[in-house]
Amino acid sequence: MIIADQISKHFDGVEAVTDVSFRVGEGETMVLLGTSGCGKTTTLKMLNRLIEATSGRIEIGGKNITEEKPEILRRSIGYVSQNNGLFPHYTVAENIAVVPRLLNWQSGHIQEHTARWLEQLKLPAHFTGKYPAELSGGQQQRVAIARALIANPPVLLLDEPFGALDPVTRTSVRKDFAELPALQQTTIVLVTHDVQEALQMGDHICLMDKGRVVQQGTPGDLLLRPVNEFVHAFIGQQVADISRIYERIKAQE
Ligand SMILES: Nc1ncnc2c1ncn2[C@@H]1O[C@H](COP(=O)(O)OP(=O)(O)OP(=O)(O)O)[C@@H](O)[C@H]1O
């Protein structure tokens, strides 16, 4: 369980995040949704203390996160950053082994788990010796997901993990990700600006604007019971655009 209680972050006078509160239950996926610059990444990074909150309280697994050293906290929180965050001078195997090494796993154990994760994420076994630059964007993203999940963290933070991919690759990486058996017990916070992704993947969605949560609830709440015109427009726009295009093409055929 993750509890964020009135968390705020101010950068030299810029109010990036103001009084954001939410709860993510065990095994649930919570989506932080909103336009560019609304404070999603800042909110996410406060959860693993890559950014320290200016005020408010965050609990993960019943513990106040400020009571733990950031580097220890991060061992139990998988994280996939916006640009995948792979180390360019590490091979795929070395990238995936970062957290297992910190946890002092034996090398045979690391190799066994790496092979299993490559298979689950549909990557060829011989990729272990390749460097990130030798992989496509979609393959790099799969490696970043394997790296975040190999030590079986109870919590996973994902910052636009599929954002840089073309629509076809995005759909396939997202589908393979969603079907991973290990995710059933993982508590996930996912950042996206894509309404369809939020509606598909979120048990719970926080729609943000200018650093604040405008509405939070289930996909059905936001889609069918928007609290104001902003929510209605943000959620409804993409759905309406697709319907309009569909109707136009149908009329032309
Ligand atoms: N280190 C920083 N110093 C100053 N301002 C910052 C810093 N990091 C973020 N901000 C500001 O805080 C606000 C929120 O940024 P944030 O990256 O959280 O938004 P976002 O919703 O994740 O956007 P995107 O989808 O473009 O990544 C922005 O106005 C941004 O310019």
From TrEMBL:
One of its GO terms (biological process) is quaternary ammonium group transport. GO terms for molecular function: ATP binding; ATP hydrolysis activity. The keyword Cytoplasm does not apply. It holds the Pfam family ABC_tran. InterPro entries: AAA+_ATPase, ABC_transporter-like_ATP-bd, ABC_transporter-like_CS, P-loop_NTPase. The keyword Transport applies. It comes from the Bacteria. Residues 2-235 form the ABC transporter domain. Keywords: ATP-binding, Nucleotide-binding, Transport. Belongs to the ABC transporter superfamily. This is ABC transporter related.
